[in-house]
Amino acid sequence: MATDKKLNKEKDIQLTQKIIMESEDIKNYSLSDKYKVGEMIYHPVFDDTGEVIRKMKSYSGKYKKIIVKFKKVGQKTLIEGFEDT
After folding, report:
1. Which domain holds residue 10?
2. Do the domain assignments include residue 17?
3. I want to staple 48 with a disulfide (CB 3.0 to 4.6 A). Which of 26, 53, 72, 82 is the partner?
4. Residue 77 burial (CB < 10 Å; 0-12/13-18/19+)?
5. How much is the pLDDT for 60?
6. The dihedral of CA 28, 48, 45, 82: what is its sign?
């Protein structure tokens, strides 16, 4: 029963994601991609869309970060342009 609920939730997330991608110019979030301030993204873990409102570097300078204001989960800090070395 719990497995059925999990599968239904995953299907709902996939459907929501498909509808969002088709209806607006929204990119799927990936930590390896780079983003611009004002760009809209969809984050599948949050099942939410948001606008990139700021860009910055981490304290170490090793990573670049974006601040995204999501509709449901609020403001989050995410990594962008990550390169696995």
Report:
1. 2-80
2. yes
3. 72
4. exposed
5. 81
6. positive
